[in-house]
């Protein structure tokens, strides 16, 4: 018993709706956190995982209140404790690492002060010792030159650095329990892998217990010993990490794991129908009933209890878990997508450069752009009709910039964009005719922002129909309903406002709006990254289906390499606005040849405890591309010397049609992989 | 707040929306008080000519400065006029002028603000400089000058007030537009090739409307304050038309022995301003806008 | 940083330049000129000619503007029509008196507003907040001339504690002025304090809801330390600009209050010169008041710039 550090008992937290009903966000949660273990809490947004983590510190957000149960730490209930006593536990015994360190560090206080504050509160060190300790801590989280970092303000650090500072701050009180709420969400893939590796190191090094909250099974798989799966405010599955990931015996987890695209497998994963219900909408029965493939009548009316299975050392909340016990490993049956691309070229970018630099008056007058080191440079891509080409790279690599130029939202500096071999599209919106605008449509990352909150679904989809085809009355209505059906939404959605839709539904509306224009090319900008994992696969499948029906060409931008792997025929890898590698996805993923591709692929987190990320290069953030030479020289671990700094590397072709831009000869690049 | 989506709503008519907003406003005590006061004053403004017990301009030297009595509920003023009659009539001019003044302010301020926010660049810079310059001339000086040179007729007061109180709305509308045009749905509309007019009408106005309306409601109470200050200084409504500001200013000199003549219009004017203010507050809250961070410029 | 300060100052001058044009054009396009309006059309040939000559109204408008502006920069606003003396001599003591009034109100108002604003935010929706917020809503909405009139009625007439009307010559020492200005200061401070208290309240509430305050609580920072270190510096910074705007706006209110109390400041001069149709003085007043507005805002901008680490580094990097 003594090795239990935090005991959550029958915890229920909720709020009162405007109509006065009590709505539960956490329903009767019980679990124990043991000394030295790392527990991963996974669930999609709104499942109550952050609320649970905060309750473990005795903190309940404004507007919420504890309905029942307790969170015991050293056998005292944190939720009933006076704030005086809580101050002695928070930061000292239990520390929190927040999701968004950029927002969670006080903007007017220097980094050094904020760490020092924690030390003053939670240690007896004198000033000299504290100063030394601050350096030590900053060193421990692997921040360069601690002395200067300590004197900086939070906004002067990059996202990854801010996250490290937050870790250092949490470690200052040498806590027994660390709570991490999505500590790597919002960071770049490579940075994320580095921070996770650091956290793993710290867990081993200090023996601290950790509770790691995330929606990302990939990240959870890398750090946790035990996993708690939450759905709709309940624990639905809890057990040893490996068992949960390899043999998930709850239908939700089972479906979830199947719906996550994997690097090692090409093709689209199976999708899970529906989305998580809003709090307060489930009256009776299992909360997963609507989406479950294993349900029966019993599930509809009775709520399953969390049942502990001794032989598996796992707790599960499901009547029919036995059906899953024997099904070994979430067997993957990916639908291989067929490459439907024709030989006909549909869009050609040649030597395209794009600059954001503010133009001098003289250049403005002559309507030209001068910039020696533009954000995006020398892009040559040739896109075939009906193919899906993906642009990948870290944030700031210019993916969205290129899309904007193709859409005409941004003027190119140099180069040519040609549609259908002869129509010149190197102009911006004002110079394009309506048909040029119609053939290219955009779908955005965040459907909350891309749909006008004051328009109904009908009005949203009607816009392109009216604009391009002048439809009216009955015909318009019929077309709208047709389109809604194509994206698997019923007719009754027409009168809804975006705020009444779930994330996945909103994104479907955005897809319908894009297809309403009958475009030839659709530009997809991170279209799945704002969605929950269980919804993502459904949207990907929908996009693929529509593409096959209409023969549309996709240009698909994403930072998620597994998603790209699932949907694309070809991949172009970008670093700092320069192309590194272009080729058929199978080849790019099979023989990662360019050093940067290697870095990106190495950093991907798979929901499998056996596949560890490979950290090749440092996760430095570069603000501008280098003036000359290879764009990746600053971080390349295989840099050959001066030539990389002086000369732009040449394009080299592999046998399979993969083009790579590097000074290292192709044979050598491929050899090193094995 | 996303939790309230579970109560699915359908598209509503403008009237249904309005009544829903009013119900939300009235569900708070302060909103209810504000609305009742405002409605009371509006009704009073319509019916007061018919219910006034005396002639508001009947001068009677024999009745000078009489204390309140059964005949003269609020007493009489220095010219022997009935204070009660003059008080219930005293809000009509102010209410009408400031109401239409606010409408004008709302229109030109809102439209110019949206325009500046949308086009940005040099035009925006120049317009905002000029608006700033107008802001830096105290409104009272400018108003006094205009009124003293052009007179105090309604045709002068309404546009003048509308102009001077619209400057602040320009800023609010511009800021709201800036917030909106960064959103992807505007980018999406532009990429589709909609005209500027269509973008303003369909995408921007529905999304900045609330902020501008709330601002307009606030302006109304400030304009009332400003207008009655003008009256008080003798530059507003001209006698013998009863007006609270003017009545207060006239009765002030004699208040050491005839306080009733000053108290009645004070209560009338204060209650109306507070009523409008509370209503504007409740309106803002019902639309989910925080108005207390703004300076009264 | 330096560049930014210079830029702000320059913008201030540009604003003033536009103001000068507006006032000049304004008085120009409105019917009547300085002489006809002042002499109320009683003037005939000789007298009008003399007036025109004296004011230099017989030369084209733009020339007049240029010479007027050039003189104004040096503090010379020409002659007042009514007092028949240089405007700058009329302005001097008035500015001093108004400054006394306004700064007294500001110095009393700001601390009180801060305290009330912080209390109402920290005890949000509890009794202190409800009570204070109710009072501030009243104080904020009631026009100065009403609160001033009520103050006179209650304090000066009924209770006879303080003089109700300021009857002093334009030039008196501060001590002699003191008892006279208490009521006007209270009248001005009331509305201003109420406005600022509400702004401080909502700014503090916003910061209290931020992630970094939540983080400070989770770090175990004691309540008051959190308030002073993590909340207030971040909450008060954006309030500075809004406070400046409020102060500037209240210049208008000062005019009314001065009239109510018969106080010999700029405000009463505004009324006097407008009643007398003394356009040159009005022009001078417009410029003076606009400069006060511009400088208060400039000061606020610079203060924010100096206190905000975010802006500071932003500029250094550029
Ligand atoms: N202050 C609040 N008042 C009312 N409801 C709230 C409040 N805070 C959170 N909620 C609701 O509680 C539910 C659970 O929230 P919580 O933040 O714990 O989810 P989460 O699993 O961490 O999601 P995410 O992945 O988006 O961070 C959500 O439906 C959310 O809308
Ligand atoms: S209880 Fe029934 S509905 Fe719920 S998860 Fe199990 S099988 Fe599915
Ligand atoms: S060219 Fe040189 S620096 Fe660039 S990727 Fe190849 S080896 Fe690395
Ligand atoms: Mg969360």
Mean pLDDT of chain A: 86
CATH architecture tag of the domain at 345-568 in chain A: 3-Layer(aba) Sandwich
Ends of chain A: how far apart? 48 Å
CATH class of the domain at 345-568 in chain A: Alpha Beta
Instruction: Report the sheet with the most strands of chain B, covering strand number, pairing sense and barrel closure.
Output: none
End-to-end Cα distance of chain B, whole Å, is 31 Å
Q: How does CATH name the architecture of chain B?
A: Orthogonal Bundle
Tally of domains of chain B:
1
On the 0 to 100 scale, the average pLDDT of chain B is 80
What is the CA-atom radius of gyration of chain A, in angstroms? Answer: 26 Å
Low-confidence stretches of chain A: none
Count of individual beta strands of chain A: 24
Molecular shape of chain B: elongated
The portion of residues assigned to helices of chain B is over 70%
Which hetero ligands occur in this complex? Answer: adenosine-5'-triphosphate, iron/sulfur cluster, magnesium ion
CATH class of chain B: Mainly Alpha
CATH topology of the domain at 345-568 in chain A: Rossmann fold
In CATH terms, the superfamily of chain B is: MetI-like
Order of helices and strands of chain B: HHHHHHHHHHH
Categorize the overall geometry of chain A.
globular
Q: Which structural class best describes the helix and strand composition of chain B?
A: mainly alpha
Please provide a written account of the structure.
Chain A is 34% helix and 21% strand. With 674 residues, chain A is an alpha/beta fold. In chain A, a hairpin with a 3-residue loop joins strand 16 (414-419) and strand 17. The relative contact order of chain A is 0.09. By secondary structure, chain B is an all-alpha fold. Chain B has a single domain, classed as MetI-like (MetI-like fold, Orthogonal Bundle). In chain B, helix 7 (154-181) crosses helix 9. Chain B is elongated. Chain C is mainly α. Chain C has a domain at 98-317: MetI-like (MetI-like fold), CATH 1.10.3720. Chain C has helices spanning 2-29, 34-38, 45-55, 61-73, 87-122, 127-141, 144-158, 174-208, 211-218, 223-261, 266-275, 279-307, 309-317. Chain C is flat, with a radius of gyration of 24 Å. The complex binds adenosine-5'-triphosphate, iron/sulfur cluster (2 copies) and magnesium ion. Residues 595, 630, 632-633, 636, 638-640, 644, 649, 662-664 of chain A line the site of one iron/sulfur cluster.
